[in-house]
């Protein structure tokens, strides 16, 4: 029986082998698409470029909330992230980026798209321009983080002959990379659609906006790099000669003015009755948004959703047992100026040391820049049409504080058991509570379900918007000595924020420019790059445990630790102060170290493995 | 059968231990960062230099961190190393005779001081205390006086509860800006030491100098002061 089976098996095997099947080894694969299949079909090419768009590099975004707590804009109210405020120094490798795999795929796309003559000419040209835009953008990202990098513009292929020397390229000059980016933008803007309705793909407006931003970065590195001569390399891989500053500023101004004069974009102003609400809506309104130039888009029930609202919704109104992670700092909140264009820290105490008493918790913030309440959820304000509950406790007649250590906790007060702390905190060292007294509002989605794990949010991430273009134009004009033009652009942005007293040319200083970007573009991922290009990072984050600055208007004020401002209620029955609100400036107990940005942080560390593989790559300075 | 299998496995495991494990690095390389025999005190672990050993394919440096009293020590394998003091590290310049690379053949233990040229040195540091107020005096010596000289940005008195005292590790600090220094030969700084819990009898003190455009600070030697 056994032998019989064996024979049968043997025969079957033999038959199987000799069976005539000529295309056995030539069957088209069913799990991948081949080049010739892709490059004749517009829809398939679109999905290829969609993948390339999806790999667009970002640093701080709504998809990684905790990175916004890396500096002085916010406190990270989550147990796992407290370390951000206990670490003093940033590693030299932080913010490093070296994605030549992505560049290779972009180069392959450009190579293949150039030969794809089965596509319609205008379709092909658009894809080609988009890929070139994305490639230039990667180089822009690389030069921001690493300085000049090897400029590879064709897909490199190894010949397997044992000598990779032909693939090793030295680092380009820092200015060389910027020049490449600017030149590419000039080329692709001729081809890209000039349509402000397209938000998630490259357009002419986007190419101009990127050109203005890149030229401005190059210009300020040239100008302010002169203040830190140590941050440079003899070959120019890091550092741009100061003589090139004016040329770049002119380029930046012209590119920005080209967008402005095209009239295709305008500042978002759909809700002129409530400017704070208007400013918040600018980020979540996806219908006919005239300000937004380029976004990373999301869509509900598509698998591509984001968790910003889930992570940061006020704890008291949360749709899950979480939220409240990102707490804007008092450092940022006190930067928002008063409506008469002056600056002042918040008044908590009178000259004689007594508290200043406010009728409502929001009163201390009254008469400020409308962007404050549009960026930050303040005590006493609303989110999703419900009041947030941010207050830290009661202060008794003798100055002692009655509070509790859980959300909305109760304690005995005057013989009654009452709530003595808000359902949003602030409770020191309790995650998700507003430990600085504030929650973030920018990008929070007011839609029902946005804070649910099962739904999440489809609010997009804005990478370029018109207000930044105006600020770029203002900065470039200011640096070129044209203060009147600079004031004109700044005033447009400021008027939308309710600051209707216009600045005059004489008011425009470098500090003004820095300040305006700080308050307009908070939580939009600009801070690190701005501080780096102005060479202010090592000045502002100097590693010293200084108190909160009294000069928020000054660009060079140190700001190394995040402070909070906690509202308290007065419990003193029978006196006029009873039930009034007072404020205390605090340092959250988890903030134990002062941030120090070292000179070696200006350009991130290039890994030893990279320099081993390519000895032509020189090391960045001061590391 | 089963038992012998176990025996074989045990034998193989024992044998492989012997085969896989290298001897631990046993040669110590110790020394100090000095200026004319005087140790240059820095922040704990913030100043590093590199040891390179070629011949291993991939080249990665061994980073040796300098302790706060200017000393360093590393356990290494015997070999021929290159010692590199990276530019921008430390509150000093490296003298031109070994500006970039020094050959460092290592065979057995070795003690070697590395000579550098600091911008400044803090000398004659003395501390006294009355109550919880600590007063420190010192003399600031400008070592580099030629065209490479740099100004003092600030001079800071640091107090800590442990013997590690620098810009990161301190419980009290008092700063005098460089422009406010009247007489570099006679600098006085005062600071109130906050209450320490649990109570301890003494605190540790160092005076640091930050030089303009130089990241790492140079310090006075450590002083323990009874309160």
Automatic annotation (TrEMBL), chain A:
InterPro entries on file: SusD-like_N (IPR033985), SusD_RagB_dom (IPR012944), TPR-like_helical_dom_sf (IPR011990)
Keyword Transcription assigned: no
Keywords tagged on the record: Cell outer membrane, Membrane, Signal
Ranges for domain SusD-like N-terminal: 40-215
Domain RagB/SusD, chain residue ranges per copy: 291-560
Cellular compartment(s): Cell outer membrane
Superkingdom per UniProt: Bacteria
First and last residue of the signal peptide: 1-20
Family membership noted in the UniProt record: Belongs to the SusD family.
UniProt-recorded name of the protein: RagB/SusD family nutrient uptake outer membrane protein
TrEMBL record, chain B:
Protein name (record): DUF3823 domain-containing protein
Organism: Chitinophaga qingshengii
Occurrences of domain DUF3823 (ranges): 27-116, 120-221
Gene3D superfamilies found in the cross-reference section: 2.60.40.2060, Carboxypeptidase-like, regulatory domain
């Amino acid at each position: 029986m056994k032998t019989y089976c064996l024979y049968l098996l043997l025969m079957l095997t033999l038959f199987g082998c000799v069976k005539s099947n000529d295309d056995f080894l030539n069957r088209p694969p069913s799990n991948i698409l081949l080049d010739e299949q892709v490059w004749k079909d517009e829809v398939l090419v679109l999905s290829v470029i969609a993948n390339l768009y999806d790999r667009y590099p970002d640093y701080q975004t709504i998809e990684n909330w905790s990175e916004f707590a890396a500096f002085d804009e916010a406190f990270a109210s989550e147990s796992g992230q407290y370390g951000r405020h206990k670490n003093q120094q940033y590693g030299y490798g932080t913010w490093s980026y070296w994605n030549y795999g992505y560049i290779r795929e972009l180069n392959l796309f450009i190579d293949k798209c150039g030969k794809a003559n089965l596509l319609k000419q205008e379709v092909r040209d658009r894809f080609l321009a988009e890929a070139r835009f994305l490639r230039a953008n990667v180089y822009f990202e690389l030069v921001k983080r690493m300085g000049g990098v090897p400029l590879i513009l064709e897909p490199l292929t190894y010949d397997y002959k044992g000598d990779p020397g032909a693939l090793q390229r030295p680092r380009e000059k820092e200015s060389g990379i910027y020049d490449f980016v600017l030149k590419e933008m000039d080329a692709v803007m001729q081809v890209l659609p000039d349509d402000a309705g397209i938000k998630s793909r490259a357009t002419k407006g986007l190419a101009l906006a990127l050109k203005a931003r890149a030229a401005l970065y190059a210009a300020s590195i040239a100008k302010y790099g002169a203040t830190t001569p140590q941050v440079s390399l003899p070959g120019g891989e890091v550092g741009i000669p100061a003589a090139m500053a004016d040329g770049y500023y002119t380029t930046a101004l012209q590119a920005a003015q080209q967008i402005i004069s095209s009239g295709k974009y305008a500042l978002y102003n759909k809700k002129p009755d409530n400017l704070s609400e208007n400013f918040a809506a600018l980020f979540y309104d996806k219908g006919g948004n005239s300000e937004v130039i380029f976004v990373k888009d999301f869509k509900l029930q598509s698998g591509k959703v984001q968790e910003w609202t889930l992570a940061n919704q006020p704890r008291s109104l949360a749709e899950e047992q979480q939220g409240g992670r990102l707490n804007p700092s008092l450092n940022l909140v006190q930067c928002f100026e008063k409506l008469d264009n002056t600056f002042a820290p918040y008044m908590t105490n009178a000259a004689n040391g007594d508290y200043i008493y406010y009728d409502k918790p929001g009163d201390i913030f009254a008469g400020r820049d409308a962007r404050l309440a549009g960026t930050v959820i303040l005590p006493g304000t609303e989110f999703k049409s419900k009041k947030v509950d941010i207050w830290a406790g009661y202060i008794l007649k003798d100055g002692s504080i009655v509070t509790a250590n859980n959300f909305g906790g109760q304690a005995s007060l005057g013989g009654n058991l009452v709530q003595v702390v808000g359902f949003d905190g602030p409770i020191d060292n309790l995650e998700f509570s507003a430990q600085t007294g504030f929650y973030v509002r920018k990008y929070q989605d007011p839609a029902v379900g946005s804070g649910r794990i099962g739904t999440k949010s489809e609010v997009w991430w804005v990478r370029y918007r018109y207000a930044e273009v105006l600020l770029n134009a203002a900065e470039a004009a200011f640096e070129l000595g044209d203060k009147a033009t600079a004031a004109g652009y700044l005033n447009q942005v400021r008027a939308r924020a309710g600051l209707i007293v216009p600045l005059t040319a004489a008011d425009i200083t470098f500090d003004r420019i820095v300040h305006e970007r700080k308050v307009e573009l908070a939580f939009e991922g600009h801070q690190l790059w701005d501080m780096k290009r102005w060479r202010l990072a090592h000045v502002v984050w100097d590693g010293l445990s200084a108190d909160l600055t009294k000069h928020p208007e000054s660009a060079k004020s140190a700001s190394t630790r995040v402070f909070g401002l906690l509202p308290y209620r007065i419990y003193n029955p029978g006196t006029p102060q009873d039930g009034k609100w007072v404020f205390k400036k605090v340092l959250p107990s988890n903030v134990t170290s002062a941030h120090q940005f070292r000179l070696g942080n200006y350009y991130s560390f290039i890994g030893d493995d990279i320099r081993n593989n390519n000895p032509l790559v020189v090391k960045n300075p001061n590391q | 059968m089963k038992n012998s299998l176990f025996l074989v496995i045990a034998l193989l495991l024992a044998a492989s231990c012997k085969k896989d494990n290298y001897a631990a690095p046993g040669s110590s390389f110790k020394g100090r960062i000095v200026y004319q025999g005087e140790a240059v005190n820095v922040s704990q672990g913030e100043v590093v230099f590199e040891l390179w050993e070629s011949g291993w394919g991939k080249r990665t440096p061994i980073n040796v961190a300098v302790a706060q009293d200017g000393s360093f020590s590393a356990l290494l394998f015997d070999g021929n190393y290159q010692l590199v003091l990276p530019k921008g590290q430390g509150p000093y310049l490296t003298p031109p005779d070994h500006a970039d690379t020094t050959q460092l053949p290592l065979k057995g233990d070795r003690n070697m001081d590395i000579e550098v040229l600091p911008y400044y040195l803090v000398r004659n540091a003395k501390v006294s205390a009355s109550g919880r107020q600590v007063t420190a005096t010192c003399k600031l010596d400008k070592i580099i006086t030629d065209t490479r000289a740099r100004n003092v940005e600030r001079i800071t008195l640091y107090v800590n509860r442990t013997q590690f005292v620098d810009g990161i590790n301190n419980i009290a600090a008092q700063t005098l800006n460089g422009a406010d220094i009247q007489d570099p030969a006679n600098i006085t700084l005062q600071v109130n030491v906050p209450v320490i819990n649990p109570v301890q009898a003494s605190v540790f003190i160092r005076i640091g100098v930050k030089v303009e455009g130089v990241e790492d600070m140079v310090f006075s030697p450590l002083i323990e002061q009874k309160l």
